Amino acid sequence: MHCPFCRHPDSRVIDSRTADDGLSIRRRRQCPECGRRFTTTETASLTVIKRSGVVEPFSREKVMSGVRKACQGRPVTEANLAVLAQQVEESVRASGVAQFDANEIGLAILPHLRELDEVAYLRFASVYQAFESLADFDAAIEELREHPAAPGTPSSAASTATQE
């Protein structure tokens, strides 16, 4: 890290702390040349490669807007969408890879969306798993029936309420 005061090419880390957002590290540094101190903030970046080849930073907001479309008319709140976007980012970061195809992000959304709302899951899956016929929908519905959402999740609570 270059010193911002004297441009010396090295600096020594004096203190490191997690920033308030939990996604970055705040480092206090000192230049061995001029002795002045400065602060840096470091974040691990995630990038997404679009189908067109364009590379852009990962955005929770884009995850939310894509899922929001699938959730239209469903009992899903903005808070639910924010939690889902956070879960997706955490699962993507946990893989240890810094660059993903946009399709991989879409596939990473599916398990979290399935727990949130099964109808929205089917809508979203039809795009990201490239459903081509009613048989694809039938297979996905059969999979949902064979392996329903865990008790206590929003999906299962909604389906229990409609069955009563």
From TrEMBL:
GO biological process: negative regulation of DNA-templated transcription
Start and end residues of each ATP-cone domain: 46-136
Superkingdom of the source species: Bacteria
Cofactor annotation comment: Binds 1 zinc ion.
Keyword Transcription regulation: yes
Function summary: Negatively regulates transcription of bacterial ribonucleotide reductase nrd genes and operons by binding to NrdR-boxes.
Family of the protein in this entry: Belongs to the NrdR family.
Protein name as annotated: Transcriptional repressor NrdR
